[in-house]
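Lab notebook, page 48
Experiment: co-folding of the full assembly
Goal: obtain a model of how the components sit together before planning crosslinking
Operator: M.T.
Materials (sequences as entered):
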Amino acid sequence: MKIGIVCYPTFGGSGVVATELGMALADNGHEVHFITYNQPVRLDFLSNNLHFHQVLIEEYPLFQYQPYELALSTKMVEVVLRHELEVLHVHYAIPHAYAAFMAKQMLKEKGINIKVVTTLHGTDITLVGSHPTYKSAVEFSINNSDVVTAVSNNLKETTNQLFNIDKNIEVVYNFIDTAKYDKAEGEECKRIALAKPNEKILTHISNFRPVKRVEDVVKVFYKVQKEIPSKLLLIGEGPERIKAEKLTKKLGITEKVFFLGNSTEIAKILCYSDVFLLPSQTESFGLAALEAMAAKTAVISTNTGGLPEVNINGETGFLSNLGDVDNMAKNAISILKDNIVLERFKRNAKEHTKKFSLQNILPIYEDIYKSCYKVK
Ligand code: GMT
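Observation: model returned without errors.
Model output:
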């Protein structure tokens, strides 16, 4: 099929999922067109069935805010017409589902019935989408998509609680290309560069937004390193990084904490890790946790949102109440203090990711695209 993918091109989970999906669809013989304002960070190659169309904004002194949705829907129309796309798959409702609706209307005038699949990722519903500033437009664009998917059962339920949705939301879990992580594990994993042989490695990866509670990561690590010789790797960039750095200084643990910034080498970094920390206020799914699990890493997380659907308490890691850093540290220590226990959690984590493998999830999206043509 000929599929247009609209997403944020950044390190955020929705952009990562959209990009990995597009690349996998292209590998499977579909013609995929990314439509966004920059080449997605994980889109590391283009080919004759993998294309990128940049949405450019025309600056004008009158505009305090540039009308991105207008430029995006115009670009969608142009790409659909030029490449005869059959489906537009938009990731993250704001403003992509709204822009897709506008494109659909414009194309209708030209006698073309483009199908729109909207995937809800989390904050587009929980933190931003339900805010009165955006709520009506988000509800409208969800209800006017041909198919709507959510990345967890929890996100589906939350969407139905927060909005008046008149169609069934299909749950399609985030997925992982497990082969990538097996490869990184097989290649030389230079753990020695970061930690001594007796030291354990804890990791956190995020966009360092307030919802991730990065200070809790540092607080948990502070307690863990008192009992277990260990290092903490923090990967990502964002507004909370400075606070987290200040806290490591205050706690006197700077020499044990490495801020590594954004990285496209996630599989390689995760191959070092023993425990992954994700103390988020909410996560619709927690793709970062799934990536860690694929790299054989146990997960210590909160029990919020869709996290219990990914991290199985007592099996792949542990779940704690929001903000309960004592419990998170206690759980991490209980895994890290015994190498046999650690190995069991790591193996379970890896095993559990099979449920979310690319091979399982890709055909679900392919069926959804086909099903659009059966939808009225
Ligand atoms: O977590 C973020 O802040 C980024 C955000 C995004 O949309 O890029 O992530 C959301 O989508 C991911 C992919 O579906 C999910 O794995 C994350 O759990 C979700 N984040 C939140 O719900 C906070």
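Interpretation: The domain at 178-356 is CATH 3.40.50.2000 (Rossmann fold).
Next step: discuss with group before ordering constructs.
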